[in-house]
Amino acid sequence: MPVSPFSHIPRAEAFRLISSRKNLAAWFYVTDKKLCYLLYKKKVENCYREFTIPKKHGGKRLISAPNELLKYFQRKILEAVDGLFTPSSSAFGFVKGKSIIDHARAHRNKRWVICFDIENFFPSINFGRIRGLFMAEPFSFSDEVATCLAQICCLNGALPQGAPTSPALSNLICLSLDRRMKELSRKYKFSYSRYADDLCISSNLREPSKDLCEFADGKWVVGSALKKVVEESGFSINERKTKFRPKNQRQMITGLIANEKVGMPREWRRQLRVLLHLREKYGPEDAMEIVKTWCRNSVRRKKAGSIDSLISGKAGFSYHLEKSGRPTFTLSLFRGYPGAREVIVNPYESFPVSLYTEGRTDGIHLLAAHRFFRQVNKFKKLNISLAGDRPTSGSADLLAHMYRLTKQSPNKFTVGIFDCDEPAFMAREGLKPGEFKRLDGAVYIMCLGRPVHVADGQRFCIEDLYDWGEASRFDENERRLFKYVEFNDFGEDGTGRFEVNPVASDALYVTGSVRRKKDGHSALLSKVTFAGYINRLEYPFRNIGFYGFSPTFSTLSAIVRDYVGSS
Protein backbone atom coordinates (compact mmCIF):
# COMPACT_ATOMS: atom_id res chain seq x y z
CA MET A 1 0.00 0.00 0.00
CA PRO A 2 1.48 3.38 -0.98
CA VAL A 3 2.28 5.94 1.68
CA SER A 4 -0.05 8.93 1.46
CA PRO A 5 1.58 12.39 1.53
CA PHE A 6 -1.43 13.43 3.66
CA SER A 7 -0.86 10.84 6.41
CA HIS A 8 0.23 13.50 8.94
CA ILE A 9 -2.91 15.61 8.36
CA PRO A 10 -6.44 14.83 9.63
CA ARG A 11 -8.35 12.99 6.91
CA ALA A 12 -11.09 15.58 6.41
CA GLU A 13 -8.62 18.46 6.18
CA ALA A 14 -6.36 16.48 3.83
CA PHE A 15 -9.36 15.89 1.56
CA ARG A 16 -9.56 19.62 0.81
CA LEU A 17 -5.88 19.71 -0.21
CA ILE A 18 -6.30 17.24 -3.09
CA SER A 19 -5.27 18.96 -6.32
CA SER A 20 -5.00 16.14 -8.88
CA ARG A 21 -6.12 12.63 -9.63
CA LYS A 22 -2.78 11.30 -8.38
CA ASN A 23 -3.31 13.18 -5.10
CA LEU A 24 -6.78 11.68 -4.87
CA ALA A 25 -5.41 8.15 -5.35
CA ALA A 26 -2.79 8.79 -2.65
CA TRP A 27 -5.51 10.08 -0.31
CA PHE A 28 -7.37 6.80 -0.91
CA TYR A 29 -4.13 4.90 -0.14
CA VAL A 30 -4.17 3.28 -3.60
CA THR A 31 -2.07 3.74 -6.72
CA ASP A 32 -3.16 6.02 -9.53
CA LYS A 33 -3.21 2.94 -11.74
CA LYS A 34 -5.77 1.22 -9.51
CA LEU A 35 -7.98 4.30 -9.43
CA CYS A 36 -7.84 4.58 -13.25
CA TYR A 37 -8.67 0.88 -13.52
CA LEU A 38 -11.87 1.46 -11.51
CA LEU A 39 -12.91 4.60 -13.38
CA TYR A 40 -11.98 3.83 -16.97
CA LYS A 41 -11.46 0.08 -17.48
CA LYS A 42 -13.73 -1.77 -15.08
CA LYS A 43 -16.06 1.27 -15.01
CA VAL A 44 -18.17 2.30 -12.05
CA GLU A 45 -21.48 1.18 -13.58
CA ASN A 46 -20.22 -2.42 -13.51
CA CYS A 47 -19.54 -2.26 -9.77
CA TYR A 48 -23.15 -2.33 -8.61
CA ARG A 49 -25.59 -5.08 -7.74
CA GLU A 50 -29.18 -3.99 -8.32
CA PHE A 51 -32.32 -5.35 -6.68
CA THR A 52 -35.76 -4.10 -5.71
CA ILE A 53 -37.64 -3.88 -2.43
CA PRO A 54 -41.40 -3.33 -2.08
CA LYS A 55 -42.62 0.17 -1.27
CA LYS A 56 -45.05 0.67 1.60
CA HIS A 57 -47.92 1.79 -0.64
CA GLY A 58 -47.22 -0.46 -3.60
CA GLY A 59 -44.63 -0.51 -6.34
CA LYS A 60 -40.95 -1.33 -6.07
CA ARG A 61 -37.90 0.66 -5.12
CA LEU A 62 -34.62 0.10 -7.00
CA ILE A 63 -31.57 -0.33 -4.78
CA SER A 64 -28.07 -0.16 -6.26
CA ALA A 65 -25.49 -1.65 -3.89
CA PRO A 66 -21.79 -1.07 -4.71
CA ASN A 67 -19.22 -3.85 -4.54
CA GLU A 68 -16.52 -3.87 -1.86
CA LEU A 69 -13.92 -1.96 -3.90
CA LEU A 70 -16.26 0.88 -4.86
CA LYS A 71 -17.78 0.92 -1.37
CA TYR A 72 -14.27 1.43 0.06
CA PHE A 73 -13.81 4.60 -2.01
CA GLN A 74 -17.30 5.87 -1.23
CA ARG A 75 -16.92 5.38 2.51
CA LYS A 76 -13.65 7.32 2.50
CA ILE A 77 -15.41 10.19 0.72
CA LEU A 78 -18.29 9.99 3.18
CA GLU A 79 -15.92 10.27 6.18
CA ALA A 80 -14.37 13.41 4.70
CA VAL A 81 -17.72 14.99 3.79
CA ASP A 82 -19.07 14.33 7.29
CA GLY A 83 -15.94 15.90 8.77
CA LEU A 84 -16.25 19.08 6.70
CA PHE A 85 -19.98 19.57 6.38
CA THR A 86 -22.70 20.36 8.90
CA PRO A 87 -26.21 19.69 7.54
CA SER A 88 -28.94 22.29 7.71
CA SER A 89 -30.76 22.49 11.05
CA SER A 90 -33.92 21.72 9.06
CA ALA A 91 -32.52 18.37 7.84
CA PHE A 92 -33.44 15.34 9.94
CA GLY A 93 -32.76 12.46 7.52
CA PHE A 94 -29.29 10.90 7.34
CA VAL A 95 -28.08 13.16 10.17
CA LYS A 96 -26.28 11.66 13.16
CA GLY A 97 -28.26 12.11 16.36
CA LYS A 98 -31.55 12.83 14.57
CA SER A 99 -34.40 10.50 13.65
CA ILE A 100 -37.96 10.37 12.38
CA ILE A 101 -39.01 10.99 15.98
CA ASP A 102 -37.24 14.36 16.03
CA HIS A 103 -38.69 15.18 12.60
CA ALA A 104 -42.24 14.52 13.83
CA ARG A 105 -41.62 16.27 17.14
CA ALA A 106 -40.77 19.50 15.29
CA HIS A 107 -44.45 19.71 14.27
CA ARG A 108 -46.13 18.47 17.42
CA ASN A 109 -49.37 20.06 18.57
CA LYS A 110 -49.85 22.38 15.57
CA ARG A 111 -53.16 23.63 14.15
CA TRP A 112 -52.36 22.26 10.70
CA VAL A 113 -49.66 20.23 8.98
CA ILE A 114 -48.77 19.97 5.28
CA CYS A 115 -46.59 17.07 4.10
CA PHE A 116 -45.32 16.69 0.53
CA ASP A 117 -42.63 14.68 -1.26
CA ILE A 118 -39.93 15.40 -3.78
CA GLU A 119 -40.45 13.26 -6.86
CA ASN A 120 -37.55 10.96 -7.87
CA PHE A 121 -35.34 12.45 -5.19
CA PHE A 122 -32.00 10.67 -5.80
CA PRO A 123 -32.36 10.49 -9.63
CA SER A 124 -33.01 14.26 -9.59
CA ILE A 125 -29.49 14.81 -8.27
CA ASN A 126 -27.53 14.25 -11.45
CA PHE A 127 -23.83 13.95 -12.27
CA GLY A 128 -23.50 17.63 -13.14
CA ARG A 129 -24.89 18.75 -9.78
CA ILE A 130 -22.51 16.47 -7.87
CA ARG A 131 -19.54 17.58 -9.96
CA GLY A 132 -20.50 21.23 -9.41
CA LEU A 133 -20.87 20.54 -5.69
CA PHE A 134 -17.28 19.33 -5.44
CA MET A 135 -16.04 22.33 -7.44
CA ALA A 136 -17.82 24.79 -5.09
CA GLU A 137 -17.14 25.69 -1.45
CA PRO A 138 -16.22 24.17 0.94
CA PHE A 139 -14.35 21.79 -1.42
CA SER A 140 -13.16 23.97 -4.36
CA PHE A 141 -11.68 21.02 -6.25
CA SER A 142 -10.24 21.25 -9.73
CA ASP A 143 -12.23 20.05 -12.71
CA GLU A 144 -10.21 16.80 -12.82
CA VAL A 145 -10.69 15.93 -9.13
CA ALA A 146 -14.38 16.92 -9.04
CA THR A 147 -15.05 14.76 -12.12
CA CYS A 148 -13.33 11.72 -10.54
CA LEU A 149 -15.28 12.14 -7.28
CA ALA A 150 -18.59 12.52 -9.15
CA GLN A 151 -17.82 9.36 -11.15
CA ILE A 152 -17.23 7.43 -7.92
CA CYS A 153 -20.44 8.73 -6.33
CA CYS A 154 -22.83 8.52 -9.32
CA LEU A 155 -24.39 5.72 -11.35
CA ASN A 156 -25.84 6.28 -14.80
CA GLY A 157 -25.55 10.03 -14.33
CA ALA A 158 -27.28 10.35 -10.93
CA LEU A 159 -26.96 9.51 -7.24
CA PRO A 160 -27.78 5.82 -6.70
CA GLN A 161 -30.03 4.79 -3.85
CA GLY A 162 -27.86 2.33 -1.95
CA ALA A 163 -24.44 4.01 -2.10
CA PRO A 164 -22.98 5.16 1.27
CA THR A 165 -22.29 8.64 -0.11
CA SER A 166 -25.74 9.38 -1.50
CA PRO A 167 -27.51 10.46 1.74
CA ALA A 168 -24.82 12.93 2.85
CA LEU A 169 -24.40 14.39 -0.66
CA SER A 170 -28.16 14.80 -1.01
CA ASN A 171 -28.20 16.86 2.19
CA LEU A 172 -25.43 19.03 0.76
CA ILE A 173 -27.35 19.53 -2.49
CA CYS A 174 -30.48 20.42 -0.46
CA LEU A 175 -28.77 23.22 1.46
CA SER A 176 -30.17 25.78 -0.96
CA LEU A 177 -33.65 24.22 -0.72
CA ASP A 178 -33.55 24.30 3.08
CA ARG A 179 -32.32 27.90 3.09
CA ARG A 180 -35.10 29.04 0.73
CA MET A 181 -37.72 27.19 2.78
CA LYS A 182 -36.49 28.83 5.99
CA GLU A 183 -36.78 32.25 4.33
CA LEU A 184 -40.31 31.39 3.20
CA SER A 185 -41.18 30.17 6.72
CA ARG A 186 -40.34 33.58 8.17
CA LYS A 187 -42.64 35.27 5.66
CA TYR A 188 -45.61 32.95 6.14
CA LYS A 189 -44.95 32.04 9.83
CA PHE A 190 -44.66 28.27 9.65
CA SER A 191 -42.23 25.62 10.93
CA TYR A 192 -40.26 23.63 8.35
CA SER A 193 -38.28 20.39 8.39
CA ARG A 194 -37.10 17.84 5.86
CA TYR A 195 -36.46 14.12 6.24
CA ALA A 196 -34.66 13.10 3.00
CA ASP A 197 -37.34 13.70 0.33
CA ASP A 198 -40.21 14.18 2.82
CA LEU A 199 -40.90 17.87 3.46
CA CYS A 200 -43.21 19.09 6.21
CA ILE A 201 -44.51 22.51 7.24
CA SER A 202 -46.85 23.34 10.11
CA SER A 203 -48.28 26.33 11.92
CA ASN A 204 -50.74 27.50 14.56
CA LEU A 205 -52.25 30.09 12.22
CA ARG A 206 -55.95 29.63 11.56
CA GLU A 207 -55.40 28.36 8.01
CA PRO A 208 -52.52 28.24 5.51
CA SER A 209 -52.08 30.83 2.81
CA LYS A 210 -53.10 29.74 -0.69
CA ASP A 211 -49.48 30.36 -1.65
CA LEU A 212 -48.65 27.33 0.50
CA CYS A 213 -51.53 24.94 -0.03
CA GLU A 214 -55.05 25.03 -1.47
CA PHE A 215 -57.97 22.69 -2.13
CA ALA A 216 -58.55 22.31 -5.87
CA ASP A 217 -60.34 19.67 -7.96
CA GLY A 218 -61.26 17.66 -4.89
CA LYS A 219 -57.74 17.40 -3.48
CA TRP A 220 -55.09 19.42 -1.67
CA VAL A 221 -52.27 20.74 -3.84
CA VAL A 222 -49.06 22.59 -3.05
CA GLY A 223 -49.35 26.35 -3.53
CA SER A 224 -47.36 28.46 -5.95
CA ALA A 225 -44.88 29.82 -3.39
CA LEU A 226 -43.83 26.35 -2.19
CA LYS A 227 -43.73 24.96 -5.70
CA LYS A 228 -41.51 27.83 -6.88
CA VAL A 229 -38.98 27.28 -4.08
CA VAL A 230 -38.77 23.53 -4.73
CA GLU A 231 -38.43 23.92 -8.50
CA GLU A 232 -35.83 26.69 -8.21
CA SER A 233 -33.82 24.27 -6.07
CA GLY A 234 -33.76 21.73 -8.90
CA PHE A 235 -36.54 19.40 -7.76
CA SER A 236 -40.20 18.73 -8.50
CA ILE A 237 -43.09 17.90 -6.16
CA ASN A 238 -44.91 14.57 -6.19
CA GLU A 239 -48.47 15.93 -6.24
CA ARG A 240 -49.98 12.51 -5.46
CA LYS A 241 -48.45 12.51 -1.97
CA THR A 242 -49.43 16.00 -0.82
CA LYS A 243 -51.39 15.86 2.45
CA PHE A 244 -53.06 18.59 4.48
CA ARG A 245 -54.08 17.61 8.02
CA PRO A 246 -55.88 19.95 10.46
CA LYS A 247 -55.65 19.40 14.21
CA ASN A 248 -58.92 17.43 14.40
CA GLN A 249 -57.48 14.75 12.08
CA ARG A 250 -54.62 12.32 12.55
CA GLN A 251 -51.45 14.23 11.64
CA MET A 252 -49.04 11.60 10.29
CA ILE A 253 -45.41 12.63 9.76
CA THR A 254 -42.91 10.01 8.51
CA GLY A 255 -45.16 7.26 9.85
CA LEU A 256 -45.68 8.75 13.32
CA ILE A 257 -48.62 10.62 14.84
CA ALA A 258 -47.74 14.16 15.94
CA ASN A 259 -51.03 15.66 17.16
CA GLU A 260 -50.44 16.20 20.89
CA LYS A 261 -47.39 14.01 21.40
CA VAL A 262 -45.37 11.86 19.03
CA GLY A 263 -46.75 8.34 18.97
CA MET A 264 -47.17 5.22 16.90
CA PRO A 265 -50.23 4.51 14.74
CA ARG A 266 -52.78 2.15 16.20
CA GLU A 267 -52.33 -0.39 13.40
CA TRP A 268 -48.59 -0.52 14.10
CA ARG A 269 -49.28 -1.41 17.74
CA ARG A 270 -51.83 -4.01 16.73
CA GLN A 271 -49.32 -5.65 14.41
CA LEU A 272 -46.78 -5.94 17.23
CA ARG A 273 -49.38 -7.50 19.51
CA VAL A 274 -50.27 -9.99 16.77
CA LEU A 275 -46.60 -10.99 16.48
CA LEU A 276 -46.39 -11.50 20.25
CA HIS A 277 -49.62 -13.51 20.26
CA LEU A 278 -48.36 -15.79 17.47
CA ARG A 279 -45.06 -16.33 19.25
CA GLU A 280 -46.81 -17.16 22.52
CA LYS A 281 -49.33 -19.54 20.90
CA TYR A 282 -47.19 -21.36 18.32
CA GLY A 283 -43.61 -20.82 19.41
CA PRO A 284 -40.92 -18.74 17.64
CA GLU A 285 -40.26 -21.02 14.65
CA ASP A 286 -43.86 -21.83 13.68
CA ALA A 287 -44.90 -18.22 14.29
CA MET A 288 -42.25 -17.02 11.83
CA GLU A 289 -43.53 -19.45 9.20
CA ILE A 290 -47.01 -17.97 9.61
CA VAL A 291 -45.64 -14.43 9.27
CA LYS A 292 -43.92 -15.40 6.01
CA THR A 293 -47.30 -16.29 4.49
CA TRP A 294 -48.76 -12.85 5.11
CA CYS A 295 -49.77 -11.02 1.95
CA ARG A 296 -48.35 -7.66 2.96
CA ASN A 297 -44.59 -7.41 3.01
CA SER A 298 -44.31 -4.43 5.36
CA VAL A 299 -43.74 -6.58 8.45
CA ARG A 300 -40.85 -8.45 6.82
CA ARG A 301 -39.36 -5.91 4.48
CA LYS A 302 -35.92 -6.35 5.99
CA LYS A 303 -36.20 -10.16 5.80
CA ALA A 304 -35.67 -10.64 9.52
CA GLY A 305 -34.25 -14.03 10.36
CA SER A 306 -36.63 -14.74 13.22
CA ILE A 307 -39.80 -13.48 14.82
CA ASP A 308 -37.73 -12.61 17.91
CA SER A 309 -35.69 -10.09 15.90
CA LEU A 310 -38.90 -8.59 14.50
CA ILE A 311 -40.45 -8.23 17.95
CA SER A 312 -37.23 -6.97 19.54
CA GLY A 313 -36.80 -4.28 16.88
CA LYS A 314 -40.39 -3.07 17.03
CA ALA A 315 -40.59 -3.19 20.83
CA GLY A 316 -37.25 -1.40 21.09
CA PHE A 317 -38.45 1.37 18.81
CA SER A 318 -41.66 1.65 20.84
CA TYR A 319 -39.66 2.12 24.03
CA HIS A 320 -37.32 4.62 22.36
CA LEU A 321 -40.37 6.63 21.32
CA GLU A 322 -41.95 6.53 24.78
CA LYS A 323 -38.92 6.88 27.04
CA SER A 324 -39.22 10.67 27.43
CA GLY A 325 -42.51 10.04 29.26
CA ARG A 326 -44.22 7.05 30.87
CA PRO A 327 -43.74 3.97 28.61
CA THR A 328 -47.35 2.79 28.88
CA PHE A 329 -47.41 0.70 25.69
CA THR A 330 -44.05 -0.98 26.33
CA LEU A 331 -45.13 -1.63 29.90
CA SER A 332 -48.37 -3.27 28.73
CA LEU A 333 -46.36 -5.57 26.44
CA PHE A 334 -43.95 -6.48 29.22
CA ARG A 335 -46.82 -7.30 31.57
CA GLY A 336 -49.08 -8.98 29.02
CA TYR A 337 -46.54 -11.32 27.41
CA PRO A 338 -44.32 -12.71 30.18
CA GLY A 339 -43.07 -15.49 27.89
CA ALA A 340 -41.53 -12.94 25.52
CA ARG A 341 -39.78 -10.74 28.07
CA GLU A 342 -36.35 -11.72 26.81
CA VAL A 343 -37.09 -9.91 23.52
CA ILE A 344 -38.91 -6.88 25.00
CA VAL A 345 -37.15 -3.93 26.62
CA ASN A 346 -37.65 -4.06 30.37
CA PRO A 347 -39.16 -0.63 31.14
CA TYR A 348 -38.72 -1.19 34.87
CA GLU A 349 -34.94 -1.32 34.53
CA SER A 350 -34.30 0.96 31.58
CA PHE A 351 -36.52 3.92 32.40
CA PRO A 352 -34.48 7.16 32.60
CA VAL A 353 -34.36 8.93 35.95
CA SER A 354 -32.87 12.35 36.66
CA LEU A 355 -31.06 12.80 39.99
CA TYR A 356 -30.69 15.77 42.34
CA THR A 357 -28.19 15.60 45.19
CA GLU A 358 -27.36 17.72 48.25
CA GLY A 359 -23.77 18.58 47.35
CA ARG A 360 -22.09 19.31 44.05
CA THR A 361 -19.76 16.30 44.35
CA ASP A 362 -22.39 13.72 45.30
CA GLY A 363 -23.47 13.20 41.70
CA ILE A 364 -19.87 12.58 40.63
CA HIS A 365 -19.62 9.69 43.10
CA LEU A 366 -22.96 8.23 41.99
CA LEU A 367 -22.03 8.27 38.30
CA ALA A 368 -18.59 6.79 38.99
CA ALA A 369 -20.17 3.99 41.04
CA HIS A 370 -22.74 3.37 38.32
CA ARG A 371 -19.98 3.00 35.71
CA PHE A 372 -18.31 0.43 37.95
CA PHE A 373 -21.51 -1.56 38.47
CA ARG A 374 -22.23 -1.64 34.74
CA GLN A 375 -18.80 -3.15 34.15
CA VAL A 376 -19.58 -5.98 36.57
CA ASN A 377 -23.09 -6.45 35.09
CA LYS A 378 -24.91 -5.07 38.09
CA PHE A 379 -27.60 -2.37 37.86
CA LYS A 380 -26.67 -2.39 34.15
CA LYS A 381 -30.06 -1.22 32.93
CA LEU A 382 -30.54 1.47 35.56
CA ASN A 383 -30.58 4.63 33.45
CA ILE A 384 -29.52 7.58 35.61
CA SER A 385 -28.32 11.09 34.82
CA LEU A 386 -27.74 14.27 36.78
CA ALA A 387 -30.25 17.08 36.48
CA GLY A 388 -28.89 20.14 34.71
CA ASP A 389 -30.22 22.63 37.24
CA ARG A 390 -29.67 22.13 40.96
CA PRO A 391 -30.25 23.98 44.24
CA THR A 392 -27.35 25.67 46.03
CA SER A 393 -26.58 23.07 48.71
CA GLY A 394 -27.92 21.32 51.79
CA SER A 395 -31.00 19.31 52.63
CA ALA A 396 -33.32 22.30 53.10
CA ASP A 397 -32.52 23.76 49.67
CA LEU A 398 -32.83 20.39 47.98
CA LEU A 399 -36.17 19.57 49.63
CA ALA A 400 -37.61 22.97 48.68
CA HIS A 401 -36.46 22.43 45.10
CA MET A 402 -38.07 18.97 44.94
CA TYR A 403 -41.39 20.39 46.11
CA ARG A 404 -41.15 23.10 43.45
CA LEU A 405 -40.73 20.36 40.85
CA THR A 406 -44.05 18.80 41.88
CA LYS A 407 -45.84 21.96 40.74
CA GLN A 408 -44.49 21.69 37.21
CA SER A 409 -46.80 20.00 34.73
CA PRO A 410 -45.96 17.57 33.31
CA ASN A 411 -43.14 16.95 35.75
CA LYS A 412 -40.06 14.93 34.79
CA PHE A 413 -39.23 11.70 36.61
CA THR A 414 -36.73 12.92 39.21
CA VAL A 415 -35.27 11.67 42.48
CA GLY A 416 -33.71 13.82 45.20
CA ILE A 417 -31.03 11.92 47.15
CA PHE A 418 -30.28 12.99 50.73
CA ASP A 419 -27.38 12.10 53.02
CA CYS A 420 -28.13 10.33 56.29
CA ASP A 421 -26.37 12.89 58.50
CA GLU A 422 -29.40 14.84 59.83
CA PRO A 423 -31.58 12.60 62.05
CA ALA A 424 -34.08 15.41 62.80
CA PHE A 425 -34.63 16.09 59.08
CA MET A 426 -35.05 12.37 58.32
CA ALA A 427 -37.55 11.93 61.14
CA ARG A 428 -39.55 14.96 59.99
CA GLU A 429 -39.76 13.63 56.43
CA GLY A 430 -40.40 10.05 57.56
CA LEU A 431 -37.27 8.69 55.93
CA LYS A 432 -34.75 6.06 56.98
CA PRO A 433 -31.54 4.90 55.25
CA GLY A 434 -32.38 3.24 51.93
CA GLU A 435 -36.04 4.33 52.04
CA PHE A 436 -37.91 6.58 49.59
CA LYS A 437 -41.03 8.70 49.48
CA ARG A 438 -43.10 9.88 46.54
CA LEU A 439 -43.87 13.57 46.87
CA ASP A 440 -46.22 13.87 43.91
CA GLY A 441 -46.47 12.71 40.30
CA ALA A 442 -42.99 11.84 39.08
CA VAL A 443 -41.00 13.40 41.96
CA TYR A 444 -39.39 11.23 44.66
CA ILE A 445 -36.99 11.73 47.55
CA MET A 446 -34.79 9.08 49.19
CA CYS A 447 -31.94 8.64 51.63
CA LEU A 448 -28.66 6.92 50.87
CA GLY A 449 -28.68 3.18 51.49
CA ARG A 450 -26.63 2.04 54.49
CA PRO A 451 -23.51 0.05 53.49
CA VAL A 452 -22.55 -2.96 55.64
CA HIS A 453 -19.49 -1.21 57.10
CA VAL A 454 -21.60 1.62 58.60
CA ALA A 455 -23.13 0.77 61.99
CA ASP A 456 -26.86 1.03 62.58
CA GLY A 457 -27.76 4.46 63.99
CA GLN A 458 -24.51 6.03 62.77
CA ARG A 459 -24.72 9.22 60.69
CA PHE A 460 -23.19 9.00 57.23
CA CYS A 461 -22.90 10.84 53.95
CA ILE A 462 -21.89 9.81 50.44
CA GLU A 463 -18.13 9.66 51.15
CA ASP A 464 -18.92 7.08 53.86
CA LEU A 465 -20.15 4.66 51.19
CA TYR A 466 -16.48 3.94 50.49
CA ASP A 467 -14.43 1.83 52.87
CA TRP A 468 -12.66 4.34 55.14
CA GLY A 469 -9.36 2.48 54.85
CA GLU A 470 -9.45 3.16 51.10
CA ALA A 471 -11.02 6.64 51.18
CA SER A 472 -8.48 7.95 53.73
CA ARG A 473 -5.40 7.27 51.59
CA PHE A 474 -2.86 10.07 51.15
CA ASP A 475 -2.36 11.47 47.65
CA GLU A 476 0.99 12.45 46.10
CA ASN A 477 0.95 15.73 48.03
CA GLU A 478 0.41 13.91 51.33
CA ARG A 479 -3.20 15.08 51.63
CA ARG A 480 -6.29 13.05 52.54
CA LEU A 481 -9.86 13.34 53.75
CA PHE A 482 -10.32 13.92 57.48
CA LYS A 483 -13.31 13.40 59.76
CA TYR A 484 -13.99 15.57 62.78
CA VAL A 485 -14.24 12.46 64.99
CA GLU A 486 -10.48 11.96 64.48
CA PHE A 487 -9.74 15.07 66.56
CA ASN A 488 -10.10 15.77 70.29
CA ASP A 489 -11.42 18.91 71.95
CA PHE A 490 -8.03 20.58 71.51
CA GLY A 491 -8.03 20.00 67.77
CA GLU A 492 -5.36 17.28 67.77
CA ASP A 493 -5.70 13.89 66.12
CA GLY A 494 -4.89 10.59 67.86
CA THR A 495 -1.42 10.35 66.32
CA GLY A 496 -0.41 13.87 67.37
CA ARG A 497 0.69 14.64 63.80
CA PHE A 498 -2.24 16.87 62.70
CA GLU A 499 -4.34 19.70 64.04
CA VAL A 500 -7.71 20.97 62.82
CA ASN A 501 -9.29 24.41 62.71
CA PRO A 502 -12.10 25.01 63.58
CA VAL A 503 -12.12 22.39 66.33
CA ALA A 504 -15.85 21.50 66.40
CA SER A 505 -18.50 21.20 63.67
CA ASP A 506 -21.78 19.41 63.02
CA ALA A 507 -20.38 18.21 59.69
CA LEU A 508 -18.92 14.74 59.38
CA TYR A 509 -15.95 15.69 57.22
CA VAL A 510 -13.52 18.52 57.84
CA THR A 511 -14.09 21.47 55.53
CA GLY A 512 -11.87 23.97 57.36
CA SER A 513 -8.17 23.28 57.54
CA VAL A 514 -5.93 20.45 58.73
CA ARG A 515 -2.21 21.14 59.08
CA ARG A 516 0.79 18.94 59.75
CA LYS A 517 2.47 19.92 63.01
CA LYS A 518 5.97 19.27 61.72
CA ASP A 519 5.89 21.84 58.93
CA GLY A 520 2.52 23.65 59.13
CA HIS A 521 1.56 22.63 55.60
CA SER A 522 -2.01 21.66 54.69
CA ALA A 523 -2.81 17.96 54.85
CA LEU A 524 -6.50 18.26 53.94
CA LEU A 525 -7.79 16.80 50.69
CA SER A 526 -10.95 18.69 49.74
CA LYS A 527 -14.15 16.88 48.77
CA VAL A 528 -13.95 18.40 45.30
CA THR A 529 -10.42 17.10 44.70
CA PHE A 530 -11.37 13.71 46.15
CA ALA A 531 -14.36 13.47 43.79
CA GLY A 532 -12.11 14.40 40.86
CA TYR A 533 -9.73 11.57 41.72
CA ILE A 534 -12.67 9.16 41.94
CA ASN A 535 -14.15 10.31 38.64
CA ARG A 536 -10.85 9.81 36.81
CA LEU A 537 -9.82 6.77 38.89
CA GLU A 538 -6.46 8.39 39.58
CA TYR A 539 -3.86 7.57 42.22
CA PRO A 540 -4.40 6.75 45.04
CA PHE A 541 -7.98 5.65 44.24
CA ARG A 542 -7.50 3.63 41.03
CA ASN A 543 -8.74 0.44 42.69
CA ILE A 544 -11.18 1.89 45.23
CA GLY A 545 -14.25 -0.25 45.89
CA PHE A 546 -17.79 0.90 45.07
CA TYR A 547 -19.75 -1.93 46.67
CA GLY A 548 -20.92 0.36 49.48
CA PHE A 549 -23.12 2.09 46.88
CA SER A 550 -25.09 -1.10 46.19
CA PRO A 551 -27.91 -0.41 48.74
CA THR A 552 -28.38 3.09 47.26
CA PHE A 553 -28.72 1.74 43.72
CA SER A 554 -31.10 -0.95 44.96
CA THR A 555 -33.33 1.82 46.32
CA LEU A 556 -33.12 3.70 43.00
CA SER A 557 -34.18 0.52 41.17
CA ALA A 558 -37.12 0.17 43.55
CA ILE A 559 -38.16 3.77 42.84
CA VAL A 560 -38.10 3.10 39.07
CA ARG A 561 -40.30 0.02 39.56
CA ASP A 562 -42.70 2.00 41.73
CA TYR A 563 -42.99 4.85 39.22
CA VAL A 564 -43.20 2.82 36.03
CA GLY A 565 -45.48 0.24 37.56
CA SER A 566 -47.95 2.71 39.08
CA SER A 567 -51.17 3.36 37.25
List the helices and strands and how they pair.
Layout: H1 11-16, H2 21-27, H3 32-42, E1 48-54, E2 60-66, H4 68-84, H5 100-105, E3 112-118, H6 121-124, H7 127-135, H8 143-153, H9 166-173, H10 175-188, E4 191-195, E5 198-203, E6 213-216, E7 219-222, H11 224-232, E8 237-246, E9 252-253, E10 256-257, H12 266-282, H13 284-292, H14 307-322, H15 328-336, H16 347-350, E11 352-357, H17 362-375, E12 383-386, H18 394-406, E13 414-418, H19 423-429, E14 436-440, E15 443-447, H20 468-471, E16 498-501, E17 513-516, H21 527-536, H22 550-565
Parallel strand pairs: 11-12, 11-13, 13-15
Antiparallel strand pairs: 1-2, 3-5, 3-8, 4-5, 6-7, 9-10, 14-15, 16-17
Kindly list the characteristics that best describe this protein.
single chain, 567 residues, alpha+beta, five-stranded mixed sheet, four-stranded antiparallel sheet
Q: Any overview of this molecule?
A:
The protein has 567 residues and is an alpha+beta fold. Helices cover 39% and strands 15% of the residues. It contains 22 helices and 17 strands. It has helices spanning 11-16, 21-27, 32-42, 68-84, 100-105, 121-124, 127-135, 143-153, 166-173, 175-188, 224-232, 266-282, 284-292, 307-322, 328-336, 347-350, 362-375, 394-406, 423-429, 468-471, 527-536, 550-565; strands at residues 48-54, 60-66, 112-118, 191-195, 198-203, 213-216, 219-222, 237-246, 252-253, 256-257, 352-357, 383-386, 414-418, 436-440, 443-447, 498-501, 513-516. A hairpin with a 2-residue loop joins strand 4 and strand 5 (198-203). Mean pLDDT is 89; it is low at 298-302.
